Each structure stands twice: as structure tokens, then as C-alpha cells.
Amino acid sequence: MMKEKKSFILLTLVVLWLIALPVKAQTERMTVNDGWRFFKGDIPAASAANFQDADWEKVNLPHTWNTDAYTVRNYYQGIGWYRKNLQIPQRWQGKRLYLHFEGANKVATVYLNGKMLGEHLGGYTYFNYDITDVVNANGNNTLAVKVDNARMDATPQSGDFTFMGGIYRDVWLIAANPVHFDLTNKASDGIFVTTPQVSETNATVSVRGILKNETNVKQNLELEVALYCPHGSLKDSQKQRIQLKPGEDFNFQLLNKLAEDVHLWSPEDPKLYQVKATVRDRKTGAVLDERTVHTAFRWYSFDADKGFTLNGKPYKLRGVCRHQDQAPVGYALSDEMHRRDMLLMKEMGTNFIRISHYPQDEAILEMCDKLGILAWEEIPIINAVPANSPGYEDSCEENLREMIRQHYNHPSVILWGYMNEIMLMAQYIRYTDEEQKQLNERTLGLANRLEKVLKEEDSTRLSTMAFHGNNSYNEIGISEVTDVVGWNIYNGWYGANLADFDQWMADQHRDHPTHPMIVSEYGAGSDKRLHTLAEEIQDFSIEYQQTYIEHYIPVIENTPYIMGGSYWNFIDFSSASRAEATPRINNKGLTYNNRTPKDVFYYLKAYWRSDIPVLHIATRDWNVRSGVQQGDAPVVQPVKVYTNLPSVELLMNGKSLGSKRVENFFAIFDVPFESGEPVLTARGTWQGKQVEDAIKIQFTAFPAQITGKNVKGLELGVNVGSNCFFISDVSNFTWLPDQPYTEGGWGYLGGNTKRVTTEIAATHDGPLFQTQRTGIEGYRFDVPKGTYEVELLFADLSGADRRAAYQLSSDTQGTNGNAVLGISINGQTVDAISPKTDNGVFTALRKKYIVQNTTDHVEVCFDASNGEAFLNGIKIRKIEN
Ligand code: GCB
Ligand code: CA
Predict the structure, then answer these.
(1) Distance between CA 816 and CA 659 in Å, rounded?
(2) What is the rounded CA–CA span in Å between residue 837 and residue 18?
(3) What is the C-alpha end-to-end distance of the chain, expressed in Å?
(4) Closest ligand to residue 573's CA
(5) What is the pLDDT, as a whole number, of residue 257?
(6) At what angle do helices 335-348 and 601-608 cross, to 10 degrees?
(7) Mean pLDDT of 393-407
(8) Which among 837, 737, 851 is positioned nearest to 794, based on CA atoms?
């Protein structure tokens, strides 16, 4: 009896103890991305708890309202409201509760149960609120968030990308014990890990942070900081006893003793250690809070002469810059989409990323650590420091502090940056001397202020910023402010030529021998629809982009005083105000916006990967090919193979076209094409084994001489005024590059080429209309008798070229005037049109005429009055009877 009673009491005690035990001792986190309501526009009353939002759009996070930026230039910049019913689990009674936003662009004002929690400026950093005292006891709460992407007191004010509005990253609900590590230190991890000492063999780890006692009783605590090896075993730990008064905060700093035999972190072998900070109740031993972060052991330096070193060895920074959008979701990428980007970069052999122009998703930083990609991260202060913009400079400083604290525990980060091309506007706006002087002072002043903040926040990393190719940075003294100097150089794209890049870097090194320099941007645009056998600067052909990159990379790789580079940009990204070959998109990517690699991706991969064979026939971007055929002879066109093999052989339908030695990681073959679907195979040897790549091409030969033999079925289009083939992605039809007329053949008569980088309205085939021959007299095809359809393509390219702010060159576009074009075919007047008056400028116009040809040619003649004649494209088609 006695015994039974005793065990019953024991059982009861165990059950009571189990019930009293918190479900989880540690901080709990869960996303609250689901079940939101959204309204585009401003309804101030929506902050109230009882506001009716039943008819608002249902959305989940991540969300942006700016997928319109892929189609319209003036994307919505303004206010959007989000509301959600927020349920707090009953088991969280007595916990400290927080709402954590990973990002809302650009300014967010957060209300819980009608009460304003705060306003956060800056669309790219995290922020959070302690909501413990605002939540309703019944667990039922209303969350309302006003987001504004038009505010000018939050940076950036301008830039070559789309400032997509919305809550476009995760939102988290966090519950912590009242005794816990700080959670409101600018939404950071709350603990900060450094490695004060690292050598080849040993290292120390230091952990600092704030411990909070938010109970109203005294706490006897034990704090422990432990270091775990990459494979999980405990390496070292440190303990400290602490007594905290009710409401007291405690600043701690623990340093482990020198750990021997540590594995260094590097891109080739990114070994991560784990640091666990634990706080326990000293009496019961119960864990009250625990925080785990990664750390790694590495050291690095920038030497203005010798270059970058990692862990004591020379190391070239092989990098890319990365923007964060993807159609059709815009900024609202899922974590796996972010991770996919990092895996692609790693596949390419990247060891460095410039996270530009703003702090990015936690998933990006996490992957940098794990995959081994050194990182430069920056806040978006771009183009100019504005005058009279209240709050702007303070919010810049705040964003800088946030970024550094939030991503402090990512060992991949080596550089913090805070300005991009900050003197760019000064190049376009004609300031008075006084205004210019004030701008210079303001800019230098903010740079100095932010530099100080940066070093105060993090003395373990270096500072940097990116300049455009202009000496004003040196003259004003801005280039003296940071540890590392970044140059964004577009020589050979926005004007100048490729070799001017080498010269620019050499001159800078000579004149500023103490500046460690990174090529923080270089890039050229390309459009998959444009291909050429005769490249020209800014023709947006896939081929010119390749040539540009094939020039820059070896210079960066082989110049010791260049620390490395970061290609602009890893992806084709959203820039709503751009209006070139692909409007709304900056197309300098190594991948398309959907992340399909362009062929040039494999050049970098061949260059940078030495651990695996890379062999890629570089004509995936142009597998629907055409050419102009002389008589019956094959059409010989160059085909490039990117590879890291020493030599490569190319075969066509199994027949060898010979072998070539590879230079600069490519070989070019002359391939004799005929209409059909040939298979090209490249082969070579890697470590004794055969490696192969193969691709099927669809080739169409168009006649150089149109004869009775080949006129049947003829449909021949010409991209007048252009060196490029244009392959329409809506029709798959290829427009051939232009050529002068020769007897027995076809081509233009007179005039000069003209090209603009301005959006063309009323067509999906913009680039076709962006080139023309001005002053053209006519166009002639020598053809047999018969019925033909002749189609003429026009777009008046006169008037102001609506260039994007980033068009660094400023050549004028000339004028077509108000030309009235009298059109005659084979001597017969067929039309008189004025594209400018009838259609407007930069607007596509296509017109077809039927011609009964009784001669041996079809010749279109222009007779312009009031201006110059022009023609943008032409097509001739045989009509079969
Ligand atoms: C730059 C800017 C970058 C632009 C780039 C370009 O120098 O820093 O934001 O997107 O040029 O493509 O013109
Ligand atoms: Ca054209």
C-alpha cells in the first residue's frame, strides 16, 4: 500500500514536471508567409484591426506587385498594403515574441492590432519588432503592413534596375524564452563571431553578444560557447557564470583558447565550423536559449602590386555580380531559386561574388559560405548623393549598420561596400562650379562618414566602392577613402575599344600605385535573336559579347595588380527603363533571365574549371542558323568550341573537319553548311579519356543569286542597315544581314547604316527596326520573271533617342526629318508614305506590295522629299501561281 502510494506520487511528479517543461527550450521560428491579403494603392484606414479586407487579393509571400516591370517602363511605384490574421500558438504563452521581416521594398510601416510597431527604411535589409506586449491574449491578431517603393528618403534614388515593391522575402514569427540572446540588435543573429587569430595550423574564435533577462526575477545562469568541427565533434568550449538582475542586459565576450589542427576555409575546400552559444539555468541545467552560427578559418589580404591572397597564397578573384529578379515572379524568389543561382555560379568556377547593388537573401550568403564563394556585399548608394534630401544620409548609415550586423557571421564576406558610380550623374548634369563643389564635398563627406561607421561595425573586414571609368574619383579624393578600389569599366561597350580597358587599369596602377584594384564590373549586352559574322561594338550580337569577355578575362587573369573581377551581370536582369534590343531587360547576363546559360557561360567555365573537362560547342544560342549561298557551294561559317582541353576535333555528321589547338580556351572551325539538320560533334581527350559534345543544327541556305532554279518557294528577308542576322522569336524567320547590290545578286543601293538603342513600338521584333540605311536610293533583287510580294519595313529613327541613363556614350542619332518617301517598284509608283507623320517616331511599320515582274529584276526605288529616305528591312517572296 505504502509502496503503491509512493510510486503514484512519483508518477504524478514526473507528469507534472513533463507538463511544466517548455516544449522547446530554444528560440522557435516559423514563417508567416501564408494567407495574406494585398491591395495596390493607399488605404490609410487599413492599419486598423477591424478593417474589412475580404475583397482584397489573396497572396502568399514572397510577393511583389512589380512584375509589370517586365512589360511597362513606368512600373507602379507607390503604396501597397498587406494584411494578415496572425495566430499565436497557445504554447507560446509567457514567451517573448518577435516579427522578423527579411525584406520589404522600400519603406515598410508595420501595424499589429492597429498599433504601429515602426517604420523601416531600406528595401534590402532585415528588420524586426518585439511584439510581446502588443499581441492579444486570445492568440488572434491582425497584422497590417504598408509598403512604399516610391519614397526618396530611402536609398536608392536611382539606378539601372527595377525597385520592385512589396514584401518580397520571408516573414518570420519568433518566440524566445524571457532569458535569451538578443534578438533586436538590428535583426542580426545577436551573437557575433570573429576569428582573431588564424594561421595554417591553429586559430582562435571569439564570440560576443548580449544576453537579456526579461523576467522580473534574478537569474543565475551559465553561458557556454562551443566550437564544433566540420564533421561534428566538439573542438573546444568555454563557460562563464553570470548573475542577471531582473530586466538586466549582459554584454559578453568569450574567447576560446588556441585551437590546433584547424582546417582552413577556401573556395576549393569550404570547411565550416559551428559555434554554439548556450545559456542555461545554473540550478536546473535547463537550456534557456541556444544560438548556432557557422564560422570558418581563413585570412586574406589585398596587395596593390601583387594582388589578392587567400590563406597566404596568391588568389585571383573570379567573380560575377548578381541581381535578384526572375520573370515572372520578379523579386519574389523562393529560397531554392536563390540557391539555384549560387549552384550555377559554382558550376561555372566562380570563387567571388559582388552582391550588388544591395544586400540579398540569407540563402545567398548561406550558399557563399557553404559553396566557397568569397563575397563583396554593399548598400545601394548609386549615381549621386542628393542635396536637400532629409533623412537620406541617416538611412544610408542605418542600412550599412544593418547589413554588416546581419551578415557579420558569414565567413565568405571579405568586403563591405557602400557606393556605386557615385559621380555618374555629375557627368550628365551641367552643374555650376559652386554646385559641383558642394556635390564633391557632400559625396566625400558621406563617404568618410560611412567609412568610419563601417570600421566601427567591423574591424575585421575591408571596405570598398565601385567607380565608373572617370578620374573625378581621384581628383575629389574619394578613391582614397576605402581599402579597396573597384572600377566598373565598359571600354569596348559604351564607346572606346577593348584595349582601352587594359590601358585604363595600367594608367590607374601607375598613377595610384597604392590602390588595390578590382574590376568590379565589365560587361556587354547580347540578344539571342542577333548573330553576326562581322561584329560591331554595341550590336547586341551574341558574338560580340563573347569577344568582349574573351578580351577582358585574360587581362584580369594575367595582370598581377588586378585583384580579380566581377562580370556584370550573372543574369539578364530587370531594368524597366532600359529600352535597347530587349526592352525592360539589361541583357549583359551570362545567363538569360530564366537562368539558361548563354554559350559564353562555358567560356568562363572552361577558363575557371580545371578539375573537370569542359567541352561545349558554342552555338546553342544560334542553332537555327542561316547563311547566303554562292551557287551550289556550301556556306562556310565559323563555329566556336569552348574547352579546357589542349586540342579539339570537330566532326560534321560523323566526318572530321580536322583538329585544332585550343587558345584562350576556344577553337574556331570553318564549317561547310548546307540546308538541312547536320549534327556537329566536338571531341578531345581529358586525362586519357575521350570527351564529347554534340549538337544538331537547323541550317537554311539563302541564295546569293536568285535564279529560275531556286526561285521556287523563295522568301528572303534582309535586316537592312545591319551586320546582324535577326531571328525573330515570334516567327522563327531569319532576316539576313544587309549587303550592297552586286550584279546578278541582291542588295542595297546607296545610303549609310544607322543604329539606335531605342525601344521600337508596335512590334516584337525591335532590333530589326533599330537599324536602317539612311539616304538609301533603292534595293534591288535580280530575279526571274514572275509574281512577287515585296515587303518594306520602316521605323523613323529621327528625333531624340530616348537613351537609358546608363548609356555612357552620347553619340547623336541624326535625323530623318519629316521625310515623305515616294516608293516605286520597277519604275511604277506604288506609294508615298511618311512614317513619322503617319506613325510617329520609333514605331514599326510593315507594308506589302504585289509586283508582276516582267523584267529580270525587282528594284524598289525611293524618292524622298523633305528629308532623307530610309529603309529598315525588306523581304521578297515568290508568289506561286
Ligand atoms: C554600371 C552600373 C550598373 C549598370 C551597368 C550597365 O556601371 O553600376 O548598375 O547596370 O553599368 O549595364 O550599364
Ligand atoms: Ca534593320
Answers:
(1) 50
(2) 85
(3) 114
(4) 1
(5) 81
(6) 60
(7) 98
(8) 837
Q: pLDDT band at residue 866, thresholds of 50, 70 and 90?
A: confident
In degrees, rounded to 5, the angle at the alpha carbon of residue 285 between the alpha carbons of residues 283 and 288 is: 110
Give the pLDDT confidence of 499-536 residue by residue, as tens digits: 999 999 999 999 999 999 999 999 999 999 999 999 99
Nearest CA to ligand 1 atom 13: 806
10 to 13, 22, 410: CA distances (angstroms): 5, 20, 48
Residue nearest to atom 11 of ligand 1 (CA): 806
Residue whose CB lies within 8 A of the most ligand 1 atoms, among 421, 568, 573, 808, for a mutation test:
568
Sequence-distant (≥ 6) Cβ neighbours of residue 414 within 8 angstroms: 300, 374, 375, 376, 461, 462
Burial label for 713, CB within 10 Å (0-12, 13-18, 19+), is exposed
Find the helix or strand (DSSP H, E) in which 353 lies.
Answer: strand 352-355
Measure the CA–CA gap between 256 and 224, rounded to whole angstroms. 11
Give nearest CA residue, ligand 1 atom 6.
Answer: 806
Maximum distance among all Cα pairs of the chain, rounded to whole angstroms: 124
Reading the block at residue 524, the C-alpha cell is: 556587354
For cell 573570379, the residue is: 318
For 643-668, write each residue's pLDDT tens digit: 999 999 999 999 999 999 999 999 99
Say if residues 642 and 603 touch (Cβ distance below 8 Å).
yes
On whether the CB atoms of residues 516 and 317 are closer than 8 A, the answer is: no
Residue in 20, 92, 91 with CA at minimum distance from that of residue 284: 20
Residue type, 127: F
Kindly give, in sequence order, each residue whose CB lies less than 8 Å from that of residue 326, ignoring residues fewer than 6 positions away.
333, 337, 571, 593, 594, 595
Task: Print the SS3 string covering 724-738.
Answer: EEEECCCCCCEEEEC
Distance between CA atoms of 671 and 661, rounded to whole angstroms? 16
CA 306 – CA 313 distance, rounded (Å):
11
- Do residues 804 and 577 touch, judged by C-beta distance below 8 A? yes
Supply the pLDDT for residue 273.
97
Residue 880 three-state SS: coil
Mean pLDDT over each residue of the chain, to the nearest integer: 94
Residue type, 859: E
Q: Which of 415, 297, 311, 276 is nearest to 355 (CA)?
A: 415
- Distance between CA atoms of residues 737 and 724, nearest Å: 5
DSSP string, 148-183: ES--SSSS-SS-SS----B--S-EEEEEE-SEEE-S
Residue 63's nearest CA partner among 23, 36, 85 is 36
* SS3 sequence of 701-713: EEECCCCCCCCCC
Ligand 1 pocket, residue 189 CB under 6 Å: no
Q: How far is the CA of 772 from the centre of ligand 2 (A)?
A: 5
Q: Which residue has 513600338 as its cell numbers?
A: 761
Residues in the chain: 881
Element containing residue 364 per DSSP (H, E): helix 362-371
Distance CA 710, CA 876 (A): 13
Task: Name, in order, each residue with C-beta under 8 angstroms of 81's C-beta and a sequence gap of 6 or more.
Answer: 38, 39, 41, 42, 43, 46, 56, 144, 145, 146, 147
Strand partners, 142: 85
Rounded to an integer, what is the distance from CA 364 to the centroid of its chain? Answer: 12
Does residue 421 have its Cβ closer than 6 Å to ligand 1? yes
